[in-house]
Design goal:
CATH architecture of the largest domain: 3-Layer(aba) Sandwich
Distance between the termini: 37 Å
CATH topology of the largest domain: Rossmann fold
Number of strands: 14
Largest sheet: 7 strands, parallel
Radius of gyration: 22 Å
Strand order of the largest sheet: 3-4-2-5-6-1-7
CATH class of the largest domain: Alpha Beta
Strand content: 5-15%
CATH superfamily of the largest domain: P-loop containing nucleotide triphosphate hydrolases
Number of domains: 3
Order of helices and strands: HHEHEHEHEHEHHEHEEHEHEHEEHEHEH
Length: about 425
Amino acid sequence: MLFSELGLSAELLRATEKQGYQEATPIQQQAIPLIFEGHDLMAGAQTGTGKTAGFTLPLLQRLQMIQPQGNQRRVRALILVPTRELAAQVAESVENYGRYLPFTSTCIFGGVSINPQITKLRRGVDIVIATPGRLLDHMERGTIRLDAVETLVLDEADRMLDMGFIRDIRKVLQAMPKVRQNLLFSATFSKEIKQLANDLLDDPKEIQIARQNATADQISQVVHPVDRGRKRELLSHMIGKGNWRQVLVFTRTKHLANRLSQQLERDGLSAAAIHGNKSQGARTRALADFKNGDIRVLVATDIAARGLDIDQLPHVVNFELPNVPEDYVHRIGRTGRAGLEGEAVSLVCIDEKKLLADIERLLKRDIEKVIIPGYEPDESIKAEPIKNGRGKQPSRGRRNNAGRKGGGFKPKGRNANPQARRGRSQGRQSRRAA
């Protein structure tokens, strides 16, 4: 179906054509008419299928159709996202698709000075794209009001909950009008997300383009069993032998991301690391250098698993498997976007046997295992426990690598309430991540 068949305004059609788009993806074909009609929406689709345009285009058109009272410019649409990178990507889409419309937008997130954001908000904006932590900072300072919001979008809502943003989200909801349109977009839907949808959405329409937690068919997936101490050697071998020019590599921890990028540099491969402890300027530069080909390897933690939109990215490597199976889907979803082919490689040691089994159970399929000659695993090596890369105990009843639920210890004293402990920890982490 063409965008011209979806009832978009002339200005929006002109913008989509300038972006080089004529045909709407399945999520866009289904979501855009429903949003036009004013329905609340719960929409799920694989990453790389056009979710952002699926809500941005109809959101802009509804702003066109509904004229606000008075001349004062107020925030009419709020888009909440979990990470800075995704916020910047969505803001770019809003700007590109709204280039021929009179609306203004701004992007607010942490890690940068708040003052330029305050200046722009005081001038008045129609659309705000924000991470929850920095948005709350503005609300507490009184530099933003949400009492005129007509449309709320929660993008990658499952990731926001997983990062501990639920309390921040509920505070934001209290500051908005009760009557508004609510759009919830995500690649996966957990039970917690469905509960949030029940609380947030009013008689919503539901769209599920592919089965939950599915990966795109055009992404080839392979596991290379290898000893933990030889992963870096194998990674360098594969990049060199295959002449890979652009590779996104995922680790579980920030420390390993830094160390691995330095080791790859010593191997003669241009590399950079991107994670939550990096300044926003460093993250932006690393991503820009990766996109334009100045570096071959970008090593990232799961903060980059959502929101990185890299045209024609050919290779994603799981240097370490994620602790949470759903994150595997989002990691490899950075390749194979917009219908293009991609390759997802996982380097798996004996320690990660259970993590791999959890991923295959989620996908409802086995991933092909291929041993690279010269890198055969040593069967005498025993498995070692894996520390949770997110720095907190598994939540929502997930079991740790020893198979014990909740971390295998009984807290005492001030830490006796696990919910309170998680809330404090997640709250701190969410502010840092945003």
